[in-house]
Design a protein that fits this description.
Number of helices: 1
Number of strands: 5
Distance between the termini: 37 Å
Strand content: 25-35%
Strand order of the largest sheet: 2-1-5-3-4
Radius of gyration: 12 Å
Oligomer: single chain
């Protein structure tokens, strides 16, 4: 995983505040890390805006972003 060299970043993921000493380079890296690489059926929103999977890799996270990661489940 590639990290940007910064002094750290605080974001909120699924209503839990997290500090990253070495923030992920982009949204794709964050989702890969948070889901242990299982990104199929995952939807992500940043600050209440859905981010299409096609642009995760070019989406740069900002300090204090509110990130929601949800997973589709099957049920009956």
């Amino acid at each position: 995983m590639f990290y940007i060299n910064t002094k750290g970043m605080t974001v909120t993921i699924n209503q839990q505040t997290r500090f990253f000493e070495h923030p992920p380079a982009n949204l794709s890296d964050l989702v890969e890390s948070e889901t242990k690489g299982k990104t199929r059926g995952i939807a992500v929103a940043i600050n209440d805006q859905v981010v299409p999977k096609a642009i995760w890799i070019e989406t740069i996270l900002q300090e204090n972003d509110q990130i929601l990661i949800i997973s589709a489940t099957q049920g009956g």
